[in-house]
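re: that chain from earlier
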Amino acid sequence: MPPQPAKTTYTPESMRKTSILIKPVLVLLLWIGLHPSLLLAQSLPDKVAFEKYGVAEGLPEEAAIHLIQDKQGFIWVTTQNGLVKFDGYKMQVFKNWQENDSTFKIRNLNGGLLLSRNGHLWVGGGRGGTGLFSFDPKTEKFTSYSIDFKDPTKAPYPNCFLLYEDLSNHIWFNSMPNDDEDPFLCRLNPETGIVTRYPQTVNRGKNNDIVLNFNMAESPQDSSLWIREDKGNLLRFDRKKDSFELGSYKR
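^ sequence. v structure.
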């Protein structure tokens, strides 16, 4: 038979000494749990340098609403008074553009900023904005999309909030009314310019954040698109029926 380990005999005196050693360790762990920021501060430099950019540096106004960096490294900024391109040294401001003998003014760009796979920028006008438009950085050409409530192939309202670009390169956005009427979830096909409307409500009344969309997701395996509408329902987009249905998961 293999040798058996020696038995350890615990006496009141040895247990008291062990308790004395353990108590300071527990106190230290408790202190770390209550004050983690103090430990983090030890690993950070004494000073973190930030540079402020405003009107003096070329912005059309002091408020920057949305930021994004393109594949070439340029920083794009939306403001209430134009779209800004920053190359690290100077800023170029786009305030209006000509299209079909009409002049479009860029205002109130609080509806999100999205960089599509082909490198184009998509900008939502948001509240009191200028609808939805795209911008080709290579040609510096803007493309606007008509707003017409009566035409079901166009966005119904000019207050457009960007959500998502799906695997088919379609752009999803919210089209919001100014009053208490119901908004529309919309899908734009950039190749045809046709908008499809859906009665679902997603992320109503909220602007896009660093992550533009946190209520839509798509599976790369089967291209299934899922949304969480404001009612709390999880819906799956049926591409064949072109409609949403209550989601179900199959193993």
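Residues 17-22, 205-213 have pLDDT under 50 and may be disordered.
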